[in-house]
Each structure stands twice: as C-alpha cells, then as structure tokens.
Write a structure and sequence with these properties.
400 residues; 8 helices; 2 domains; single chain
Amino acid sequence: MRKYLVFVAVSVFLLSCADDARDNPNDEHGTKYSQKSSSEGSSSSVEADYPSSSSDVEEPSSSSEEVYSSSEEASSSSEAGSSSSEESLTSSSSVEPSSSSAEPSSSSVAPSSNSVVPSSSSAEPSSSSVAPSSSSAEPSSSSAGPSSSSEAESSSSVAPSSSSAEPSSSSSEPSSSSEAESSSSSSSSYGGLCEGFVEGTPREHYGQSKPQFCDERDGKKYVYVEIDEQTWMAENLNFAASNSKCGNNNSLSDSNTTSCDTYGRLYNWATAMNGSAGSDANPSKVQGVCPAGWHIPSDVEWSVLETAVGDSSTAGTKLKAASRWNSSGNGTDNYGFSALPGGYAESGGFIYVGNSGYWWSASEYDRNYAYRRRMGYDDSNVFRNRYDKSVLYSVRCVQD
C-alpha cells in the first residue's frame, strides 16, 4: 500500500511538472507556444496567395518559398523546443514531444507541397500563353495564304498578258494580210488568162477614165463605175456562154462579131441566170452568167440605180452613153454608166441596134415572163417591162 501511495504521489508530481512544461513558450504543443500563431498566419497567407496566383504566377511560388523557409524556422524552433523539453523531461517523456514535433515538421512540408501546385498552375498559364502564340502563328500562316493567293492572281494576270501577246501576234497577221491587199493593188492578184493584170488599171472609155477588172474565164477586161452604194459594170457582158449570141447585121452568130465587141453578147433569161431561180432581193445574190464576185441585178437593184441618178423619167438621158445612139438620141452619161443601144434578138432575127438597149433583171414575173429595162434613142426614160424569157437581151452585172 505504501508503495502504491508513493507511486501515485510521484505520478501526480510528474503530471504537475508536465503541465508546467506545456506552458513553456518554447514547447510547440504548449498553450503558450510563441511560434504557433505565426505559423498559422503563414499558412493562412498561403491560402490567400492562391487567388493571387491567377493574377501573378510568380508570387505564389515566391510566397511558398517563404512559407517553406518559415516552416523550416518552425521546424528548427520545434527542434529547439524538443531539445529544451529533453533537458526537463525524462528520456521516455522527451520521446513523445520529439515524435509530436515531427508532425509539425511534416505539416510544414505540406504547405511546401501545396506551393508546388500553384507553381504548376503557373506553368499551365504559361503553356496556355504558348497556345495563343501558336494560334497566332496560324493566322500568320493564314495571312500567308492570301498572299499566296495574290501571287496566284498575279500569276494569272501574267497569263492574260501572254494571251494579249497572242492577239498581238494575230494582229500581225491582219497586218500581213493588209500588206497582201496593199500589194495586190500594185501587183497582179489574177491567174490564168488574167495573169499579170493589175486590178483597177484605168482605161479610157467613152471620154472617161474608168477602172477595170479581168474575167478569168476568158481574160476579157471590163470597166466599172460606182454609183451611190452600187458598183456596176460600165459595159455589157461579152462572155461566150452556151446559147448566147452575137449580132451579125440582121442575123445572129455563135461566133464573135464586131457587134459583140461593141455591144456585148445577147442572152435569154435562162442563160443569163445560168439555171438559177429568180430573185427579188437586194442584192439578188444570183451570179448567173456574171464573173466571180459579180451578180445579175434584181428588179429592185435597177430601181435603186434609177433613184440614185434622179428618177426613171430622166434616168435614161443620164445613163446613156454620149455616142452611138441614132438620131442624136445620145445621153449625157453623167455617171459613166455608158448605156448602149445593143438591140435584141427574137426568132433568129437581130433588130433595133442603134435604137434601143435592153437588159435582163434577176426577177421574174411568172414562169414565162421576167422583168427587164429598156432605153430608147428618143426617150429620156428608163422603162420597166416584163417580157418573154425566150428573148435575147444584154446583161449588166453588179459587184457583190
């Protein structure tokens, strides 16, 4: 019993000593530990620094170092406290505070570990800042795209320039063509029986100088005149087509005669048309027996000529030649048309030479009749009549 009471007394004493040790300001487990409040404040500052990390990523990392440093001081202080408690307590008692002091040291590491998170968080914004930089590189690449596109357009603009070179080359061809035309005016463009003849070579014809063209079919040359917008032969056609005739006094001949040299040959309507159908168009577009590039005038084209020189009532005088008409029936030949009294042929007879001239048109009245023009020595008119297609008249051609 005594031993038991002694043990209790010693235990009470020791417990009272232990309570005094708890009040030691250097004991971090004591109620008066001076570093405890500062450590909590430092820990609190770490929590407050997390939001700060969103605004400044460097500050949390720096604060965490301070906290870590502070925790080291706390750890160092706890070691000092632990060392101090070892001096006042027994060996077994000092172990508990030392073990207990290890917890704060571990606790101090946690803030340091937490401080790493903000540092890592700060790295993410930094990585995020790189992404926009990469994104900005893409627009830069995109801007290069339009630049490349503009180069393509610029290259495309070169293609038209190249294309424009082709028209330029093409333009040189017309130039060459125009040179050929210019050359044709000074050298012959004819072949065959007209080889060496120069288009437009003038010839004196009934007191007027008129240009000529050559009929390559037989080599004959014909003068022509321009009246208003028409170009007419200024003499009758003298091409020896099948069924055409020449006057020979009062008869007809298949062979050439002096009458044909002056008045040209005579043709029925079918021969004049060379088998083509009639036409009332302007131009008629019926070559008929005419040379290439020329055609038989339609009834309308004859009317256009008459109107161009005044009207049909006076056109005869203005279109007739100033010679070869009987009984002073010559015309004034104002336009160089030089109409001659070649007569006509019917039923094998050749009549009215010197008195009248007759010319076919390409227009027909019906299957038996076609329109013609007549001028007489005793008239100033140009007469329009329809007559039997079988009769032989003169032909004047109009240039296409």
